[in-house]
Amino acid sequence: MKKSFWKKKYLIEHPHEVLGYLQSTSTPYKKNIDQFYCDTYATFGVLGVRYDDEATLAVLNEDAALHILRDVTNDRRYKNRFVKLFGFPEEYDFDEQTVFAKCDRLADVSMDFTFMGGMSAQKVFKVLLYHETLRLKNAVQALLDDEGDALKKTYRQLKRIAMLLKISRFLFDTAMIDRLQNVLGVLTCKERTALLDRMQSSAYQAFLWDIQTLLTEKSDFFLQKKGNQPLLFFIKKMVKKEPNALVKRLKKAIR
């Protein structure tokens, strides 16, 4: 009867040190190491093991416990192909809430974002939508205060958000995006008096509420199946589907 094997992958730090130690020991799990790769500076590495019993795995886990950061068996970002393309997620992944807080401090600034190709596409678009919505709120306040260029700024922000939503429908729940697009269509107007009325309406408040709900939802409830795909892959597909100025700008922003 053929023996059954299982596989595990671990993210480790100081990978060469760990591998050297494990290979120099006389413990039986040495033969179970079947995969190893690390970043350029050998800060992080992935150790792949095959095992046929829990006892062997337990011994390995105990010996390497100080260097094992976590189990990444089911995280495709740690596959060799992805690591070669983008590096380890620790080098490019980010927390949306931290970036949102930075956007809050720079709400009036037109930020030139730089992105890494391995970043989650949905995270990047959440940040872009958050920043442009903040700028819309500021433009609307300026409109209410009767500032001279507020009409132009408000209209521009509405159009920018519309462009982001058009592409976001490939990442997020289409029903939510449809609702946001429909309300945005009602709100968008170039005539000052009409725009003032719309920016003080319940429709505008509902729009802000819905977009806030979308951006702050921590689960995958509003995500499409491929919402977490690497930004580079997503943009390459979008260049063919939506060859507009925003997509071209995002393509140039990827490092």
TrEMBL record:
Superkingdom: Bacteria
Q: What is this protein called?
A: Uncharacterized protein
Its ancestry begins with:
Bacteria, Pseudomonadati, Campylobacterota, Epsilonproteobacteria, Campylobacterales
